Amino acid sequence: MSNARFATIALLAGVLLIVGAQWIQNDYFFNAAYTVLMYVILSTAWNILGGYTGYVNFGTAGFFALGVYSSIVLWKAFHPPLAVMIVVGTLVAALAGVGLGYLTMRLRGHFFAIATLALAIMLFTFVTNWDYAGGARGAYVIVPREVPFGFARYIRYLFSVMVLLSVASIVVARVVERSRLGRGLAAIRDDELAAECAGVPTLKLKLISTALSGGMMGLAGTTFPFFISFVEPVGAFDLRYAVNAIAMPVIGGMTTWLGPLIGAVLLGTVQQLVQVTISSAWNLLIVGLLLVGFVTMAPEGIMGWVFAWRRRRARRS
Predict the structure, then answer these.
(1) Could you tell me if 98 and 211 are in contact, meaning their C-beta atoms sit under 8 angstroms apart?
(2) Distance between CA atoms of residues 174 and 27, nearest Å
(3) What is the domain range of residue 75?
(4) How far is CA 9 from the centre of its chain?
(5) pLDDT tens-digit profile of 58-91?
(6) Domain total for the chain?
(7) Nearest-angstrom CA–CA distance, 57 and 137
């Protein structure tokens, strides 16, 4: 299937989901669905760098928070449309990704992972001491009274926006995976030194990968202030974002665009159900147990099982 046809089908599926969801009367569904869709974007973004390129990123919360605080600053200064804040927040996080790529271009393996964690800590310290953005006391964002496009509630509008952003993220991931860029990233993941010897422009591809990954993580955070209304640094830089962004691709499968989607929907839905029925304090424990289980028994994730089943079926036929 061509990328254009896939994008068209994904967009139609997203529009149908938006239209069909408007018949649901329980607003909690939209709160839970927003969170799951946010993780779809975060896990897809993480997978471009961690799965396709093989560079583990522990700084997901930092890039996510860049999108969050870009929207807060713009809202306090200009009250622009949501679309403007989405674009600006994405670009800010993408530029941070490029900067991370340049600063860490000689780092590999666990050294790169530590550098990404250090970046998140630096950003947290900066935001905590930035009074205009709310500082340590946090910042309130007043949700507009007028809901665009005739939606009944603002959360329904945010849900619809997140559906479209998730579709865009998935399409980008699939295009990258099936392009020359994706093949180059796979070469870096398999053996970076061999890729350099073969003429692959590893630095250029890593910069593109960090920019795409960082920008998409920022994209996931741009609408967050309007979803939660009150944002403080501890919440924006929450460890859960980094842990879930890693766990979901690992559970779903890191070598394909479909893996993060499956992992985010599966794990995100389980977390929302546990939060309602038991306690949100159990969420990280569940993530840890699932991670240990999949790393031990299925290191290639759910999609690894699917590919193995297909290979066995092909051999039998």
Answers:
(1) yes
(2) 32
(3) 3-316
(4) 21
(5) 989 999 999 999 999 999 988 899 999 999 999 9
(6) 1
(7) 28
